[in-house]
Amino acid sequence: xxxxxxxxxxxxxxxxxxxxxxxxxxxxxxxxxxxxxxxxxxxxxxxxxxxxxxxxxxxxxxxxxxxxxxxxxxxxxxxxxxxxxxxxxxxxxxxxxxxxxxxxxxxxxxxxxxxxxxxxxxxxxxxxxxxx
Length: 132
What we know:
The protein is mainly α. The protein has one domain (10-124). Helices cover 80% and strands 0% of the residues. The protein has four helices and no strands. The longest helix is centred in the middle third of the chain and has 28 residues, at 38-65. It is globular. The mean pLDDT is 87.
């Protein structure tokens, strides 16, 4: 069985979240030095933090109940948070394209750092059911 199809335990989320925070914070001096609007960075940072907070709340909900219904709620919630972020970015971009672009790039940078580390942790982590 190929390595990417084997079930694994859920990766830790603290280090990827810290990486996302680091990338978001690192983007601020870039915005300042480049003379870009800090409001775009702030909007992207708030959207990323809100999305992460909502995701953590959903994960906690699933962890407490552990039933199949909670898994459905979590799946719907994760889909909803992605759609909600994109609706906000799109609405902002309609009124101010550069503000929307700055917010989208900031959000995408934090999200990419978080997702990248989660994928690395998942595929290098223990297989589901493995005893260490």
